[in-house]
Amino acid sequence: MAPVATRLGAVRVTGDAGSSARRHAARTAFGVRVGATRTDARRSPTARGVRTSRPDARRATVARANAQANAPQVAPAHLRQTVTPVPPEALVDGGMSLADQPGMAAGFGDLTEHDFLRVNTDTPGLRVLHIDPPVLTVDDFLTAEECDALITAARDSGEMKTSEVGGAAGNDANVRTSRTCTLNSAQLTNHPTKLAILNATESLLPQLKGLGAKKSAFTKPTSSSPFSYELPQVAHYRGGEYFKTHEDAFPAEVASKKGYQRRATVLVYLNDVHEGGSTRFEKLGPLDVTPKKGKALIFFPGTDASQPDARTLHTAVEAVPGHEKWISQLWVCAFAGKHAPAGVPPGPGDRAARRAAEKEAKKAAKKAKGGRR
Predict the structure, then answer these.
(1) DSSP code per residue over 327-353
(2) What are phi and psi of 153, to 5 degrees?
(3) Is the distance from CB of 153 to CB of 186 less than 8 angstroms?
(4) What is the CATH number of the domain that holds 272?
(5) Structural domain harbouring 180
(6) Rounded to 5°, angle at Cα 22 from 98 and 118
(7) Rounded CA gap, 319 and 308, in Å?
(8) Does 318 map to a domain?
(9) Facing residues of 182 across strands?
(10) Regarding beta strands 296-299 and 135-138, do their DSSP bridges make them parallel or antiparallel, or are they unpaired?
């Protein structure tokens, strides 16, 4: 395999793409050090209790272990106050393409997996708009025909209603002015564009592969089925309508009660908006994403620790009067108990799985005891 030279933050690595140096560069992903992995610990001779035959090698192993233990650790994503943007010139070009940068692609993939959901960096049309927190777009996520068909179906369904905020119509009336429908009516539940959105999402986020075909796809996630979708929506903003600054993730206490957290937002623009209507990330520059028909915007409002990442605060900027914006949005949810920080009790829904595991353990112990007689 040809050598690659990769620049990840302040780390420059030259070597084979599969080398330990590249793996280290991936873990330091674009200057965001994510710390040692359990895999590294398992591979360490001292961690396994294996003595090396040469004193020099043993001392070197101990030195590496000490250096790794004393290395500064970056806080979990939901506690980080810093952000890592892409180079300004990349934004001018519409975002950073990873297609011809295998080292950076691997590093970005590892970064997204560490705190969020792993991104398939081989996805055609993928561009990175911000590194940490990750914000990316995918051109041609949907075809123009799929976008038009969903707009027509939503408009003709009679289901478009004033958008709700916080789950109750009439609350925070000035926060959001738009109309929304959920794709679960008789006319929309099996719409081809809905299925196209799910398929494209599962190609982009490999941990979700096959989720849309499961019976549990739109039910509350559990420890045994840790991911699910909220029902996809279509939203319509007429000229002058907006959604003021907000977060998509649930507050920690709400996520704890629900037993799950919103981990990814997949927002697909269904039409071009020539003036206004951008999605603006207030704390990232600000960073504005211009609607383009068929383009998806993906970011991660909740973290692997089931906590909201306040850095993803964003606004649906109002379209200029005389223009309109149509979008489809999908939230990926994950069971809160599975990724809860140490010391936090598992969330609701874990009890059944725990009891089943205990039952299996008792059976195994009884069988083992019987075999020793």
Answers:
(1) EEEEEEEEETTTTPPTTSPP-TTHHHH
(2) -65, -40
(3) no
(4) 2.60.120.620
(5) 140-335
(6) 50
(7) 28
(8) yes
(9) 233
(10) antiparallel
Q: What is the pTM of this model?
A: 0.74
Residue 125 placed within a domain:
no
**Amino acid occupying residue 219:** T
- Residues 346 and 36: their CA atoms lie apart, in Å, by 25
43 to 36, 38, 46, 48, 155: CA distances (angstroms): 11, 9, 9, 7, 57
The torsion angle over the Cα atoms of residues 2, 117, 76 and 32, rounded to 10 degrees, is: 20
Position 347 scores a pLDDT of 44
The residue with tokens 């420890």 is 223
184 in Cβ contact with 233 (< 8 Å): no
Is 315 inside a domain boundary?
yes
Torsion of CA 140, 142, 143, 148, to 10 degrees: -130
Mean pLDDT per 10-residue interval, the chain, length 373 residues: 34 35 45 45 43 67 68 79 94 93 94 96 98 98 98 95 55 66 93 98 98 95 93 91 88 94 98 94 96 98 96 92 94 78 44 62 78 56
As a whole number of angstroms, the longest Cα–Cα distance in the chain is 84
Tokens coding 287: 């960073």
Whole-angstrom Cα distance, residue 145 to residue 101?
32
Cα 6 from chain centre? 24
CA–CA separation, 256 vs 170, rounded Å?
25
Backbone angles phi, psi at 4, to 5 degrees: -125, 145
Count H helices and E strands in the chain, helices first: 10, 17
